[in-house]
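ingest -> validate -> predict -> emit
validate: passed (alphabet ok, no gaps, 181 aa)
predict: started
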Amino acid sequence: MIHLLFFGAVFLFDLLLMTLLPIDFSSMRFVFIPSTMFIFMIYCARTYSFKKSMLLALGLGFLYDLLLFQQMFELTLVYVTVMLVAKQWSNHLSESMFETITLALITLFLKEWVLFVVLRLTLVTDWHFFDWMAYRVFPTLLLAILLSVFVYGWYITYNQILLDMTSKIRRSEKLRWYQHK
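emit:
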């Protein structure tokens, strides 16, 4: 239940940012893609198993495809691909705030790059690579630096609540394994 509460809150925050900063692909102006849910997904995937991380990426990618992107399975493919890379890379990192935020920003860049490739291959966009980088990726990454610190605070709170719930469950167990050595 706590998982749905936190992921729902981050999703609503993402929708609020999308409403305040609408995306207009018709003109060549700076576009900011609020990827708070993606960043939170990357943070959570560091502690999840491989299977749970892949299912999370599949589910969130499908949710965004269904509700927002309107191109079926493109974001799902992108999210799962980026999650594969993120899980492999996160195995070599420690749990510091700097490395976690860096992982989120690099995977956000990778997500945008893979999304560009997928959209070009499916002929959904006719933007050139440098236009995509200048008008979409650069503003997204700049504002994602601030958002990733904010989302990291949510992630720490989320993890702390999960640890408290786990310790409460363990304290209520009748059989204490450490006494039976």
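The chain has a mean pLDDT of 84.
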